[in-house]
Amino acid sequence: MGLPNPIPDNPLKWDGWRQFNSANPYERLCLDFESNPTSAQVEDNCRQLLVWWQKKLPLKNQPSNPMAQLLRIGLDDAPVKLTEARTRLLDTAQRAQIDADLINKVRETALAEFNKFLSFALTSGGLSADEEESLYVMGGNLGLKRPEMEEVIDAMLAKTGLRRIPKELPPVVIASAPVAPAPVAAPVGGPREEFLRMLRLSGMDEITDDQRDAFCNMGEALGLSGGDAEDIIDEYLEERVVATAAAIAQATPARAAAATPAAPRKPVFTASPLQRAEEREKNPPFTNTLGGEMCLVTSGSFLMGSDQPGAVANEGPVTRTNLSAFFLARWPVTNAQYEQFDPGHQARRAPGADDRHPVVYVSAVEAARFCEWLSHKERRRYRLPTEAEWEYAARGPNGRIFPWGDTLQTGTLANFADANTTFPWAERRINDGFAETAPVGSYPASASPFGIEDLSGNVWEWCLDGMSTYPGRERTNPRGPLEGPRRIHRGGSWKSRIGSLRASARSFNVPTYMANDVGFRILCELS
Fold first, then answer.
1. Residue with more model confidence, 181 or 45
2. Percent above pLDDT 70 for the chain
3. Maximum distance among all alpha carbons in the chain?
4. What is the rounded distance in angstroms from the CA atom of residue 508 to the CA atom of residue 395?
């Protein structure tokens, strides 16, 4: 949703201008609720958008111009709407209320979706134990808690006059019945199997277009793509044709099959919009005792690594990785912050580096000791981020190439080897204004999907774990080896070529290594 750089002058090449009238103040300013935008980012986006609309004002005198007709409402209303959004988001109390309203809207959407699932489950005239358990799985994937799902189910049963079907008295197929329900397969834990299971429990032989759309939404809630959900629906309908023919030919009691214990469900990692919204509600960003801003990175899944052109062998195989929520510092640790722990470090500062520059000449061992010191000081759990946490915070669930997006066009997004350096690989066409490190926060436009800045360039950042090979199979909250000769650092630095700025790029050194382009940022675990 972010503003393109630069914003296209032609509105036909950029749909963001249409957001000026959104009920969501973040969307009006082309900001994302989940990206922890700073007040400076709110101000900057508002300014850029107002300038864009200001340039369109002459169109008001050209009513027959097709572009004037396209933009007609915004020519009068956009400046007012944008300014209103800016004012509300810069007011702490109003922004808190906006956030609460957005979270409630996500919760209402999840409950509405769950009610759709429930309505389909009740088409058989009652609710079996297996159907109810499947509903809890689907609702859990939406981020709902079991007590609130039970409340919704009880209310629906009371409203419809239907009842729960006891597990010990499963329905029996009557020989005279023209159609018998397909046998229910025990779930094996994957999204595909769980979706097929829900389809089978519906017992439907024909599916209308509206019902197909609703079922596709159910499949997407389980993590399937729309195309995969469509294919599984077609597979189910073909299965029903075969099952119907078999039932007519030979109707037999299904009691024995239904009495067979279902295989235990394999836990499935979920990170629904509601779950992420509730994480934000319970864990607001905070500023630690050193003045460092800590942003929430919500739970989610992403494809770690890369197989794109330019990627090297150690970035593969691409591995689906699931991560629980955590706080990550908006910027790397600065000289002033680190020297509250180690005052003697001031003698090791890089030439010309002031308090706001990222600390360098710090080993992974010293960075870990700083985290232990701060944990004791604040009674929170600080540590270095794992390599997976670092990459997810940089790329988000959509797998950006760089923290800010998929292209690197100018020197306004990161501090890397440019015309200010003498390295053979320097990019001579770009001058970012810094010969070595830049003060943290110098590149607000480079923020990741979670609002984390300076992840690419400036200084390499130590990670918690050592170098290891990606497994190629799905994993949850992984950690590499904590001991060994190769400690990971990520992100590139002011010495780096552009390729090292990619969020999937990896590098390492011995844990005691120190240099003028290696620093770190801190992670705080949720309470």
1. 45
2. 89
3. 91
4. 20
CA torsion, ordered 40, 46, 52, 55, to nearest 10 deg: -110
Q: Please tell me whether residue 144 adopts helix, strand or coil conformation.
A: coil
Distance, in Å, from the CA atom of 183 to the CA atom of 7, rounded to the nearest integer, reads: 56
327: part of which helix (H) or strand (E)?
Answer: strand 326-329
Question: Whole-angstrom Cα distance, residue 191 to residue 180?
Answer: 25
Cα–Cα distance for residue pair 303/421, rounded to 1 Å: 34
pLDDT of 244 reads 56
Q: How far apart are CA 221 and CA 354, in angstroms?
A: 49
- Per the structure block, which two tokens stand in for 406? 């998929």
Pick the closest to residue 25 from 74, 92, 98 (CA basis). 98
* Packing angle, helices 209-221 and 92-121, rounded to 10: 120
Question: What DSSP state is assigned to residue 444?
Answer: G
Q: List, edge to edge, every strand of the sheet that includes 319-323.
A: 300-304, 319-323, 475-476
Helical axes 191-202 vs 226-249, angle rounded to 10°: 40
State the residue for tokens 């999907």.
449
Tell me the DSSP string of 480-520: --SSSS-EEEES--TT--GGGGSTT--EEE-TT---TTEE-
pLDDT for the residue numbered 241: 65
End-to-end, the C-alpha distance of the chain in Å comes to: 31
* 3-class state of residue 70 by DSSP: helix
Alpha-carbon dihedral 312, 473, 326, 449, rounded to 10 degrees:
50
Burial of residue 513, with CB atoms counted within 10 A of its CB: 0-12 exposed, 13-18 middle, 19 or more buried: middle
**Lookup result for tokens 């769980």:** 194
Question: Nearest Cα to 490, choosing from 509, 513, 512, 471?
Answer: 509
Q: DSSP letter for 94, please.
A: H
pLDDT at 247 (0 to 100): 53
As given in the structure block, the two tokens for residue 56 are 């369109």
Helix (H, G, I), strand (E, B) or coil at 269: coil
DSSP, collapsed to helix, strand or coil, labels residue 382 as strand
What's the burial of 505, exposed, middle or buried (CB within 10 Å: 0-12/13-18/19+)? buried
359-382: average pLDDT: 97
- Greater pLDDT, 211 or 431: 431
Report CA dihedral (177, 182, 184, 188) to the nearest 10 degrees. Answer: 180
Structure tokens at 144: 């709902």
Q: What is the pLDDT of residues 76-114, one digit of tens each?
A: 999 999 999 999 999 999 999 999 999 999 999 999 999
Cα(521)–Cα(359) distance, integer angstroms: 10
CA distance 58 to 36: 35
CB 335 within 8 A of CB 355: yes
C-alpha dihedral sign at 54, 60, 66, 70: positive
Q: How many residues can be counted in the chain?
A: 527
Distance separating alpha carbons of residues 142 and 125, to the nearest angstrom: 25
Main-chain phi, psi angles of 258, to 5 degrees: -70, -25
The number of CA neighbours under 13 Å toward the Cβ of 293 is 15
